[in-house]
Request: fold
Amino acid sequence: MLNKDIHEALEKVCNEKSINETTKKQIKDYLDKKSTDTMTLSEQQTRIENILGGITDGA
Amino acid sequence: MELRILGWESKGMRCPDASLSFNLGDKTDFIQMNNGTGKTTILILLQIALTGIRDVEKITEGMSSNTDEELNRSAHGLLEENSDIGSFKLHTKISGDVYTFAIVINRAIYGKDAIKISSTSPNKESGGISINKKEGTPTWNPPADARVYLTLAFVQVFIFNGEKAEKLFQKNDTAKKTIDALCQFNILDESKNAVSGYVDNVGETTGTGTGNQANETRLKTKKEKYVVRRKKCLDELKDEKKGHSEKKKRLEKLDQLNKEEILKNKDRQAEQEKYDTDTKENDGKMLDAQKIFYGQLLNPMKISNKIKKQLVAFRESLTKCKLPEDVAKQWFTELSDQPECICGHKIGPQEKKKIRETAKDYLDDRVSGILNSIKGSIEDYRSSSVDKLNNSIKSINEADNKAQQLQTSHSRFLTTIGENNEEFKLSLEEMGVLKKEIKDHEILIKDYEAPGSVEDFREMKDPEDLQSIKTLDNIINKIQGDIDSVSRTTGLRDASKLFIEIIEATRTRASKVIYENIKSAVQKDIDKILKDAKPPIKIVDIESRIKLNRDRVSEGQQLATAYIFILSALKNSNIKVPFIVDSPCGSIDGVKRKAIGSSIPLATDQFITFITDTERANFVSSIKNITKDKCSFTTIFWKGPDVDKWIKDFNIPQKEVEMHDTWGMVKGFKSFNKYNLAGKDE
Reply:
C-alpha cells in the first residue's frame, strides 16, 4: 500500500485530468499492487492495458 | 510491512563469535561495544543480510567494486584473521513470519561468490527457501512485501551511522533519497517505465512502431489510392456491363430479323431448322460427354496411366512412412529424457519441454486417419481403367469438331443469302462485330469480377496494375486493419503520455505535502530539542538536502537534526522498521542527549544502538525513562587484565559473564552501566 499522501495527490490529479472513477481505481490498485512487488508480468500487462484503455475511452 | 530484529549469531567474522537475542517486548536494545570490537563488521553484515548485496564496497562506500579482486578483498576483509570460513545469521520477524538470513564467507572462493546469502522461513512452504536454478543452492528470498523496502538506499536509512550524519546536509540528494525511499516514490518511477515499456512492446509486436500520426496518415494516403482505383474499376465494370447488355440486345434483334428473313423461303427455313436441330443435338452430346468427363476426373486414377502409377507408389510409401501415435509419442518422450539429442545438441529443461509439446503436432490420430482414408481411396481405385476417361475426351473432341462443322456450314449458308440481300449482308457484318465486342466486354467483366488474387494481395501491387475488385477490397481491408493497429498504438501512446503526466503530477503534489509535513515536524522537534541554539536553528528546506538557516552548527546540533529528520521521515512512512544506530550520541551534549533519547523510542518500536561507555550519560537514562525500562543491555569486550579488574572491582557476578577465548559478554543494566573501559579495546 502506497503512502496516503500519494493516494490523496493521485485522487486530485485524476479528478483534474477528468479520469473516470473506474480508471482512477485501476491506477490506485495497480500502484498499490506494484508497491508490494507481488505482480506477475502478465498481470501487470493486463492492468496497464485496462488503465490505458480506460484513459483512451475517457479522453 | 513490519520488520523486527530478533537477534544474530556470528562465527569466524571480524567481530566476537557472539549470539544475541532481543526480547519482543523491549523497545530499545543497547549493545555496548567500544571502538575496535567489530561494530563496523556487524553493521556491514546486517546490511548484507537485509539487502542481499554481496559487494561490500557498495555498502560501505556507495561505489560498486570494479574487479573480482576488489570484491574478494572486501569480502575476505570481513573474516577473522585466522578464519577460513565465517558465518553470520540474522534472525528477523517480517510481517509476522520468522525469517533467517544466513551469510557464509569462504576465503577459498574468489570474487562475488566468496559471499553466499540465503534466507529461510520455517512457517513458509518448503521453509521459505528459494533455490538458485543455476547453482542449485538456496538464495536470498525475503517476502515480496518486504523486498521492495530492502534496497540499500532504504536499509541505510534505518541502519544509520551517526558518524555519517553530515551527508544529509551536503549537496548529494541524500535527504531526498531518504524521503523518496521511505515514501516509495520509486514505485511511481517504475510504473512510468512499465507503461512506456508496454506501449513500446505493443508497437513492436504489431509492427506499428511508435504508432504516430505520421504513420497513420501515410497508411490512409495509401488506402485512398486503392479506394480511388476501386471506384474507377466499379465505374468501368458498370460501363462494360451496360455496353455488353446493349450490344447483346442489338445482336438478338439482328438475329431475330435475320431469322425472319430466312423464314421467308421454305428451303432456307428447312436448312435453318436442320441447323438448329443438329446444333441442339450436338450441344446435348457435348454436355453429356463433359458430365462424364468431369465425373471421371473425380477419380484421379483415371487421368492417365502415369498418374495412376505415381499414386499407387505414393500409397506404398505411406505404408512405409506411417508412425503410429502411441509408438511415436513414446519415442519422443524417451528422446526428451536423454541428456543429448540425436543431432548432438544438449537437451536441457527447455528443450525437453519443447520436444514434448511439438511431438503432438507431428503425430496424432486425426492425421493418421486422413492418411489411412487416402490410402484406402487409392487402393479402391487401383483397379480402375484409364480407358474410360480417354473415351470421354474423344467424345468431347468429336462434339467440338461437329460444332465447328455446323458453324462453318451455317456461315456459308448465311453468306449465300447475303449475296443477294445487301441489308442481310450488312446485318451479318454488324453481328460479327457485335459478337467480338460482346466477347471483349465479357473478358473485361470477368477481370473486374475475378476472385481475389492471393499473389497480388501479398505483393500489394500498385493499384493501377489491379483490376479485380475483390483483390482491391482485400488490400483496402488489410490497410484499414493496419490503420486500426497504428491508430490503437497511437491511442495507447497518447494514453501513456497522459498516465505519465498523472504520475508526475502526483509525485510533485505528494512530494510537496510530504516534504512540508516532514519539514514542519522536524522544525517542531528542533524547536524543542535544540531550543538553546542561538540564533535558533530553522529548516530552510529538505528537498535535496537538509538546508538550515545557519551555515555553521555544532557537530552535536547537526547529529541531533539528522536524527530528528530521519525519525520524522520514518513516522511519515507506512512501515515499521527497527532504527539501528552506531555511535548514537557522538559529541551531542547532555541536554540534547536527553531530548533525543526521549524522542527516538516514540518514532520506532525497536531501537538498536551500538554505544560506547562515554555516550551513556543522559542518553541511556532518558530512554530507560521514556520506555519504562523496556530495554535490554549487552556489553561485549575483548578479554584482558583491565576487564578482569573491572569484573572484580565492580563485583560483577560471574554467572552474568560469558567468557570466551578472546572476548566476553555480559548482560544486564548494572554491569552495562558500570563498564568504564572506554578506549581500552582500541
Observations:
- The CA atoms of residues 13 and 42 of chain A lie 27 Å apart.
- Chain A has a mean pLDDT of 90.
- Chain A has three helices and no strands.
- The helical segments of chain A are 4-16, 21-35, 41-58.
